[in-house]
Amino acid sequence: MANQHLDATPLTYGTGTGTILKLDDPVSFWGGIDHNGMINDVHHPQHGTYVTGRVLTMTSGRGSSSGAYCLMELLRLDLAPAAIVLCEPDGIISLGALAAAEIYDSWLPIIEITLDQFDLVTDGAEASVISQESGASLDF
Fold first, then answer.
1. 41, 54, 57, 76: which has the fewest C-beta neighbours closer than 10 Å?
2. CA–CA dist 84, 9 (Å, integer)
3. pLDDT band at 62 (very low <50, low <70, confident <90, very high)
4. Beta strands 5-12; 55-57: pairing state
């Protein structure tokens, strides 16, 4: 699997593995992803694609503060991504993951990479994300 190793910044902790879903545009967890884990924003390039169990990779988050609750619900229902990779920190997405960790003991690793690293990420590749206090990485 690991042809590429990218060092990253941890935003939340945990580990996750899955197939990379590299989004062309950011998506909102409120109104952009339905309760089944599908991108239901009809204007999104990956409309109809499921985020469940994927290493969701996008440049940034998008949308309402309600997205934190929506992500938390996806985690509770075991329909969330396996990990999230961003190019800039997103407090709303991180809050949803942190709340789910506290309430449901469900940990979702969220890491930050650079835009140059984002360009290296291959959609559809099998990947592993490790995020801990000492650092984070994306291997694919």
1. 76
2. 12
3. confident
4. unpaired
Select which of 60, 64, 128, 134 is catalytic: 64
Q: What total of structural domains would you count in the chain? A: 1
pLDDT band at 64 (very low <50, low <70, confident <90, very high): confident
The answer to whether residue 64 is catalytic is yes
Q: Are 85 and 59 in contact (CB under 8 A)?
A: no
CATH number of the structural domain spanning residue 115? 3.50.30.10
Q: Residue 1: which pLDDT band, with cuts at 50, 70 and 90?
A: low
Q: Over the stretch 86-112, which tens digit does the pLDDT of each residue have? A: 999 999 999 999 999 999 999 999 999
Compute the CA torsion angle 91, 79, 100, 93 (nearest 10 deg).
0
Structure tokens at 135: 């650092």
CB 10 within 8 A of CB 131: yes
Nearest C-alpha neighbor of 51 from the set 24, 29, 76: 29
Tell me how far apart the alpha carbons of residues 75 and 13 are, in angstroms, rounded to a whole number: 14
